[in-house]
């Protein structure tokens, strides 16, 4: 079961590579990935979504050519 959790986490973080074209899309994609990772790791999904959204927005704003 532990192996499945790490695979799901890797897939969730891989979702962040999608970025999004607008600020709203970036927040939504990040929130989805962060929330999913938090659920898999049995943590608070709301906190995971907030961290994921902030992280994806920050990444996409800093490296727009990679999104």
Automatic annotation (TrEMBL):
PROSITE patterns: PROKAR_LIPOPROTEIN. This is YMGG-like Gly-zipper domain-containing protein. The lineage of its organism: Bacteria, Pseudomonadati, Pseudomonadota, Alphaproteobacteria, Rhodobacterales.
